[in-house]
Design brief:
The complex is a heterodimer of chains A (227) and B (476).
Chain A (H helix, E strand, L loop, with lengths): L4 H9 L20 H4 L5 H14 L3 E5 L2 H15 L4 E3 L11 H6 L3 E2 L14 E4 L3 E3 L4 E5 L7 H4 L3 E7 L3 E2 L2 H13 L6 E5 L4 E2 L7 E2 L6 E7 L4
Parallel strand pairs in A: 1-12, 2-3, 2-4, 4-7, 5-8, 7-12
Antiparallel strand pairs in A: 5-6, 6-9, 10-11
Chain B lengths: L9 H9 L2 H25 L2 H17 L1 H14 L3 E5 L2 H14 L4 E4 L3 H5 L2 H7 L3 E4 L2 H9 L15 H12 L7 H18 L2 E4 L3 E3 L4 E6 L3 H7 L3 E7 L3 E2 L2 H16 L6 E5 L13 E7 L23 H5 L1 H6 L10 H11 L17 H5 L6 H14 L5 H14 L2 H14 L4 E2 L2 E2 L7 H4 L4 E2 L6 H15 L1
Parallel strand pairs in B: 1-10, 2-3, 2-4, 4-7, 5-8, 7-10
Antiparallel strand pairs in B: 5-6, 6-9, 11-12, 12-13
Helix pairs in contact in B: 2-12, 3-12, 9-10, 15-17
Classes of the chains: A alpha/beta (227), B alpha/beta (476).
Bound molecules: iron/sulfur cluster (SF4).
Chain lengths: 227, 476
């Protein structure tokens, strides 16, 4: 049951006075208004904005001046959390920084092409990288892949994300353009997840609560890799 | 599913709602909160009018070329391995979902909040064939347990208090729970996690479909849609055919307009952009993805200069929060899936027949909905035009018709007018006190049971005029 595409589209085109398949008239307005694209953006302003917005959404952020310090920082964070139920992207995932030593030390369960999703059911902490992060909104962007399963950051109560300062883009539009490019190259990920803070709901008498389905805590460990 | 107010017309349902103190307070409190937050966030964001303008331009262009963008969207989706279905009616869409469920021998489905699935009563159709459907949005889960329908398109359980929620959860689980928000939410997390793990099918709506890439964008604050589409093996997307946007650049505009208008949030917590099912080398995500594109009365609005713009709607709910009528009576009184000003316009347009024809009258026509709408839909003008059409097609109550006929006759002739006023003045005598009629009975009771009606004065202006002239002349 259902109708075929041609009939369906004809029923739309006709009242619009169009012939199906005809190209649209040229657009006068695409995307955001000029006031948004014309803003100044520097690395320093991006970093400051990301930190402000990310923490404003109850995200926790630590900054490190070297890879060595970041690894030590991750060690400390995991110690403080005090759980040994740790999961992480696979070794060949697009990690922005190599934290293999720490993950091995903690015997983190790793996500591989053949992983059984159910093995991650009882994970408390999920450690991932990200494809970029957005300064305007404090958003982390994660693309799915063979070694970067969605389960790793969607299931646990705590999500720790590793990133470099140079991965910050100014706007949501900048991040979305990367998806368009990936699509053009036939490489768009099946899932691109834009995460802004912890899972939340105000459905019970307007009283905000966190961690309803997704993580209740999101922590970012950022390498300040720019002058 | 039922609504707490099941009377057949909006007037009676509104009366019931007005008598429910908790409901009125809860609706007031929530809508005030959402409205104030929206005002604060859009003020801080700046240039809000430029964003609204842009939102309107994009929606206008998209809908005016909808066949083109839908075609592009469908082709890209298919290229990414998704199955695309087209449904002219709600029955067709439900049938397609049931066929997929049957082919998968599905027993259980999880769902994230979707107004389109409410529109086509999908849960009911699936349950009839033995598929158990569980809503995963916390608010939707609550009202599903209560056997009710949503009363707000963004905050569905606006009308339930924490004691009622605890009772529902306890009845469902047999567990003892407190009324603490944290405990109730933790229970929902535990419980629903099991549902995701055992479901055969995940059903979501679609906030926006992106033609340029063949992607589905889904917005949630809880993160439930992400689990619904990633954990079960089959993901079914139901979308109204108008949900499409041409490009990712356009999505940026709506990723600002939607959360800011809906809940006053600068950004939605989770935006998932799904482009096809899991790739061959991935170990999670749905293996199969079906996208069902639904007409169900929408194409009737195309080419109609009065109503085409209703398809620009992005279902943000901002018009509900500012509507003086919605704020008094809440969502169930509308008796339709879509409440508030958007519901009052859309429901009679999508549905033929008499059912929703009283909804265009559930408005004071103040225009607050238009001011709040992020894509500038002139809802108040549309309500007037719907009323005009109803009158033109004879959909008027006999009493109202008779009243207007009498009005025309009386006001069309000076002699008749004077005589009528004289008689009415005498007849009002037992009902009028201190210059007002406040009676709960009598010919104007429809008005005076909830408002005062000014009584006819002892003398009309016309009767006073000769005397005024005399006095004026005397003084001169
Ligand atoms: S009509 Fe406008 S304000 Fe109302 S739900 Fe639709 S987009 Fe939002």
């Amino acid at each position: 049951m259902g109708v075929d595409k041609t009939t369906f589209l004809e029923r739309i085109a006709k009242p619009l006075g169009r012939v199906p398949g005809d190209p649209p008239s040229p657009r006068t307005a695409i995307g955001v208004p000029a006031c948004w694209t014309d803003r100044p953006s520097t690395q320093a302003s991006r970093t400051a904005s990301f930190i402000e917005k990310f923490t404003g959404l109850a995200g926790e952020i630590e900054q490190y001046a070297s890879v060595h310090e970041l690894r030590a920082g991750l060690e400390r964070v995991l110690n403080d959390i005090g759980s040994d139920k740790i999961g992480a992207w696979g070794k060949r995932a697009p990690w922005p920084i190599d934290v293999e030593d720490v993950l091995e030390h903690w015997h983190a369960l790793r996500w591989e092409e053949q992983t059984d999703r159910r093995a991650f059911d009882h994970i408390h902490v999920g450690i991932t990288g990200c494809s970029c992060a957005i300064a305007d909104t404090g958003t982390i962007v994660i693309a799915s892949g063979p070694q970067s399963g969605r389960t790793v950051h969607q299931i646990p109560l705590i999500h720790v994300v590793i990133l470099r300062e140079s991965q910050l883009v100014q706007s949501l539009g900048d991040a979305l353009q990367r998806l368009v490019q990936a699509h053009g190259q036939g490489e768009i990920a099946a899932s691109n997840h834009f995460i802004s803070g912890a899972s939340r709901s105000s459905d019970i008498e307007n009283d905000q609560t966190i961690g309803v389905h997704g993580p209740a805590r999101v922590m970012a460990l950022m390498l300040t890799d720019l002058e | 599913m039922s609504t707490p107010h099941s009377s057949s017309n909006v007037h009676d349902r509104a009366q019931q709602a007005l008598a429910d103190d908790f409901l009125r307070k809860a609706v007031h409190f929530t809508t005030d909160r959402l409205r104030n937050k929206k005002q604060a966030v859009t003020g801080e964001f700046g240039n809000w009018e430029a964003w609204r303008e842009r939102g309107q331009q994009i929606r206008q262009h998209t809908i005016a070329h909808l066949d083109y963008y839908l075609d592009q969207f469908a082709r890209h989706l298919e290229a990414h391995g998704a199955h695309v279905h087209f449904a002219a009616t709600g029955e067709e869409a439900s049938y397609i979902v049931r066929e997929i469920a049957a082919a998968k021998s599905a027993k259980r489905a999880v769902k994230s909040k979707s107004m389109v699935t409410e529109e086509i009563h999908l849960n009911h159709h699936l349950e009839e064939m033995g598929v158990q459907v569980v809503e995963t949005d916390l608010g939707e889960y609550i009202i599903q347990l209560a056997g009710e329908t949503p009363s707000h398109i963004i905050i569905p359980a606006i009308h339930k208090n924490r004691e009622q929620i605890r009772d529902l959860f306890e009845a469902e689980s047999g567990e003892q729970l407190t009324t603490e928000t944290r405990d109730l939410a933790a229970f929902a997390r535990r419980r629903l996690r099991q549902e995701y793990l055992t479901a055969d099918i995940g059903i979501t709506g679609c906030n926006f479909g992106i033609a340029e890439t063949g992607s589905i964008a889904l917005f949630t604050n809880e993160g439930n849609a992400d689990l619904v589409m990633n954990m079960p093996k089959t993901h079914i997307v139901l979308m109204g055919m108008e949900r499409v946007l041409p490009t990712m650049s356009d999505l940026e505009v709506f990723a600002h307009l939607l959360p800011k208008s809906a809940t006053g949030q600068n950004v939605i917590t989770y935006m998932s952009i799904v482009t096809g099912p899991r790739r061959d080398n991935e170990a999670d995500g749905a293996e199969e993805m079906h996208v069902i594109i639904l007409d169900n009365g929408r194409s009737r609005q195309l080419g109609d200069p009065d109503f085409q713009a209703i398809l620009h709607c992005i279902r943000c709910g901002a018009c509900l929060n500012v509507c003086p009528v919605y704020r008094q009576i809440g969502g169930h009184a509308y008796g339709s899936v879509y409440p508030g000003p958007i519901g009052a316009v859309l429901s009679p347009l999508l549905n033929d027949g008499e059912t929703y024809q009283d909804l265009p009258y559930a408005s004071s026509l103040c225009g607050a909905c238009y001011e709040a709408c992020p894509v500038k839909i002139p809802l108040h003008d549309m309500l007037v035009r719907e009323r005009q059409r109803l009158v033109a097609t004879g959909h008027v109550k006999p009493a109202e018709k008779a009243a207007f006929r009498a009005f025309r006759q009386v006001f069309g002739n000076a002699g008749r007018y004077q005589t009528t006023i004289r008689i009415a003045r005498r007849l009002q005598f037992p009902l009028a006190h201190d210059g007002y009629i406040r009676a709960k009975i009598g010919p104007v009771a429809g008005w005076t049971t909830s408002r005062d009606f000014p009584a006819l004065p002892k003398r009309t202006f016309r009767e006073l005029w000769p005397e005024l002239v005399r006095k004026g002349n005397g003084r001169g």
